[in-house]
Structure formats: C-alpha cells, structure tokens
C-alpha cells in the first residue's frame, strides 16, 4: 500500500475517532484545520466539488470560503454562469461574476466547470423572438452559436469542462420539447431533431478544442428508460461526428436509492465506449433528497434510523462511484450546493441532502464516504 494512502487512511480514521468521541455525535467544522477533507480523501479517485455562488467566495476569511478551499478541488456556479445571468440581452454580456469565479479557482488550484451553455430554463426569451413573432431556425442557431463562441472563447483553456446542453432528453419522449427543439427542429433534414444540440457541440469545440464537452441530464443514473434514451441520442450524434466527450449525470437521487439500479444505468451508458472508447462520465449535481418527490411539506424527523438510512444511501452511492472511477469512467463528483441550508431542495420543508450541514459541519455520512476512498 502506498505511503500517502496509509497516511490518508490514518488521518480519516483519526478524524472519525475525534468526531465520534464523547457522548453522541460531534462532527467537525468542514473548514477546521484538523478536519479531514473530501478532496484529499478522494485524491486517487476523482475530484470532489460543489455548486457555489460568488457571494460564498467574496470574503476569503468567511467560513463558506474556507470550507470551499479546504474541501473541494472542482467547482461550478449554481446560477451565475447560466444564459439569463451572463447574457440577459442580445448585445449585453455580464462576465464579472464568472470572471471572479474562474480567477478564484485558478488561485486555489481548483478545476472550474461551466454550467450551462444551452438549457430550456433560465434562458432569456430574446433568443427565440423576432419582433413579436418566433425567430427563424437560422436566427435561433446563429444566436446560440454566438453565445457559445463568445462564452467558451473567453474562458478558453481555463474552464475545463462545459455542460454544453442541459436536460435535452425528454421525460416521456426521445427529445425534450423546448423552444430550442420547436424552433430549430430537423434543420438538416436527416429525420431527427438533435440539430440544435449538434450545432451547440460543434460551436463549443471550435471555440476551445481542448475543453471537455458534456451532455448533462437528470435521472439517467436511476431510470433505465431515460438512460436508454440518452444512449440512443448520443449514439446517433456520435455517428455523425458530433464532438461529445462525455455524459454528465446530475444525480439528484433520493434517500434509499438502490445502488444496483445506479449500476444498471451506468452500464447502459458505458456501452457508448464501444463507439467512443474515451467517453468520460462526470457526476455534476449530486444530492440526496430526504423526501419523496410528491410528499407533503411536513418536516422529516432526524431519528437514528433515518440518519442511518441517509448515510447508507451516500455510502452505497459512493461505492458505485468508486467502482466507476476504478474502471476509468469517472474523474469528477460535484455536489449541488455547499451545505444543507442552501440546497435548492429546501422548498417548503427543511431538507438535509448534502454531506455538510447548515452549520458547516461535516456530517457522519461525510466521514463514512471518506472511508471508502483510495
Ligand atoms: O435571482 C432571483 C431574485 O432576483 C428573486 O428575488 C428571487 C425570487 O424568487 O428569485 C431569484 O432567482 C432564483 C434563482 O434560482 C437564483 O437564486 C429563481 O427564482 C429560482 O428558480 C432559481 O432556481 C435555480 C434553478 O436551477 C432554476 O431552475 C436553483 O437555484 C438552482 O439550484 C437550480 O439548478 C438546477 C441546475 O441548473 C440544473 N439541474 C437541476 C438543478 C436543480 O433544479
């Protein structure tokens, strides 16, 4: 066993002893000097990151900022790099926040991701309008290309991985119906409506030939139907030489997620390596929802059993992610939020989806997943 691996196991074990000493469970602040760090624990496996906002990093002495630097070696902006934030009007870009984010990442040796160039949500309506009517397919494509070229060129060589398109696979059809698919349609007349996606990838590749270009979506890790639809779409586009480098698995999973179901879905999409041997996976938005999707807004009780099941969901999931990394498929795992208190899942009830709690303490689940590392 390598020396640094032994040292890491020792450090995590020592931290775990400290964390669990005394009565009950006392966890450490994630920014504490003696706390173990997710990025160090998994340094032989994959980068570990979080979705943040620039207010988290404005003050280097803030606990949020210290937590970020201590725990993560990849980051993404939760909202501030989306088209509605950086390109609200056709002739106006606002890059100040994205610039600050990329500078911060470089200063701290953190790999920045770009989220997202093309999405049906958080995109301003001007992309799709010509006067009071619909824009033509040509106009929509030209605006989309201009957007991608401007943004990707600005961060060429710096933003290493882009969600070129986000959530384009439909929940009940082959392709999501959106303003992009409606207005661009089957532009090249080849019988499919992937045309805006194909053009998006080509524009991104042209702007930065070395950036990793990802197609990102939810539920492709947990629904075999959706994984198959993603497989079919990517296979078709790869056969037309669309420069897709990898698949982004959002992984907004629920407590109790069956790890074998994850394995099945990853296996389906892993078959794309028969066509593209270096296809890569990234986990882009991991969190564990403590509520069923349609449950009433009644706060969950954090009983011992509940926490045990929550921790098991994380350890089961990281076991699968570690397998993927060992097989060379996965090199980045990003969580969607810095801590429980700021998660998008706090809608109508308190949620506890992250590995760091709202006091910025590492949760038991964090210590347990770190034991799987290396
Ligand atoms: O900025 C406005 C603010 O001016 C206004 O006062 C406030 C009132 O509601 O809204 C603010 O905008 C909110 C925005 O987040 C910024 O905080 C929007 O209402 C809110 O809808 C938006 O939610 C974001 C959501 O994407 C939009 O679909 C979440 O923060 C963000 O976590 C979420 O992220 C998505 C990923 O991009 C794609 N995958 C799913 C993931 C979770 O939904």
Characteristics:
374 residues; binds ligand G3I; 38% helix; two-stranded antiparallel ribbon; alpha/beta; 12 helices; globular; TIM Barrel; eight-stranded parallel β-barrel; single chain
Helices and strands in order:
Layout: H1 3-20, H2 38-41, E1 47-52, H3 63-71, E2 74-77, H4 83-86, H5 96-107, E3 111-118, E4 129-130, E5 133-134, H6 137-154, E6 161-166, H7 179-184, H8 195-207, E7 212-217, H9 224-239, E8 246-249, E9 252-254, H10 259-270, E10 280-289, H11 304-326, E11 330-335, H12 364-370
Parallel strand pairs: 1-2, 1-11, 2-3, 3-6, 6-7, 7-8, 8-10, 9-10, 10-11
Antiparallel strand pairs: 4-5
Helix pairs in contact: 6-8, 9-10, 10-11, 11-12
The chain binds ligand G3I.
Ligand G3I binds near residues 121 and 285.
Describe this structure as you would to a colleague.
It is built from 12 helices and 11 strands. The chain is α/β, with parallel strands linked by helices and 374 residues long. Strands 1-2-3-6-7-8-10-11 form an 8-stranded parallel barrel, surrounded by 4 helices. Strands 4-5 form a two-stranded antiparallel sheet. α6 runs parallel beside α8, α10 (259-270) runs parallel beside α11 (304-326) and α11 packs parallel to α12 (364-370). The longest helix has 23 residues, at 304-326. Ligand G3I binds next to loops.
Short account of what is shown:
With 374 residues, this protein is of the alpha/beta class. The protein has helices spanning 3-20, 38-41, 63-71, 83-86, 96-107, 137-154, 179-184, 195-207, 224-239, 259-270, 304-326, 364-370, and strands at 47-52, 74-77, 111-118, 129-130, 133-134, 161-166, 212-217, 246-249, 252-254, 280-289, 330-335. The protein is globular.
């Amino acid at each position: 066993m390598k020396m640094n691996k032994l040292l890491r196991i020792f450090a995590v074990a020592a931290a775990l002893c400290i964390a669990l000493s005394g009565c009950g469970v006392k966890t450490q602040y994630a920014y504490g000097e003696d706390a173990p760090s997710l990025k160090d624990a998994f340094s032989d496996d994959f980068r570990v990151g979080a979705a943040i906002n620039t207010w988290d990093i404005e003050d280097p002495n803030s606990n949020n900022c210290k937590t970020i630097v201590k725990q993560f070696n990849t980051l993404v902006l939760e909202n501030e790099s989306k088209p509605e934030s950086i390109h609200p009007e056709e002739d106006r870009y606002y890059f100040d926040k994205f610039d600050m984010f990329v500078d911060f990442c470089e200063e701290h040796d953190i790999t920045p991701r770009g989220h997202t160039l093309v999405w049906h949500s958080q995109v301003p309506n001007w992309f799709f309008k010509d006067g009071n009517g619909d824009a033509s397919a040509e106009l929509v494509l030209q605006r989309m290309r201009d957007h991608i070229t401007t943004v990707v060129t600005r961060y060429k060589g710096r933003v290493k991985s882009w969600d070129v398109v986000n959530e384009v696979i439909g929940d009940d059809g082959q392709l999501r119906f959106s303003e992009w698919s409606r207005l661009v349609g089957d532009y090249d007349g080849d019988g499919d409506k992937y045309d805006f996606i194909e053009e998006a990838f080509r524009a991104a590749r042209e702007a930065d030939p070395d950036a990793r270009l990802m197609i990102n979506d939810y539920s492709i890790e947990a629904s075999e139907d959706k994984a198959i639809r993603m497989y079919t779409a990517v296979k078709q586009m790869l056969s037309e030489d669309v420069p897709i480098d990898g698949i982004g698995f959002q992984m907004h999973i629920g407590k109790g997620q069956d790890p074998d179901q994850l394995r099945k879905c990853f296996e389906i999409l892993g078959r794309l390596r028969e066509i593209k041997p270096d296809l890569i996976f990234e986990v882009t938005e991991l969190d564990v929802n403590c509520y069923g999707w349609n449950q009433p807004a009644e706060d969950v009780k954090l009983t011992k059993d509940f926490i045990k099941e929550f921790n098991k969901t994380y350890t089961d999931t990281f076991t699968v992610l570690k397998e993927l990394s060992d097989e060379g498929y996965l090199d980045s795992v990003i969580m969607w939020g810095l801590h429980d208190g700021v998660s998008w899942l706090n809608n109508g009830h308190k949620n506890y989806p992250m590995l760091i709690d709202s006091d910025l303490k590492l949760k038991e689940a964090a210590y347990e997943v770190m034991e799987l590392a290396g």
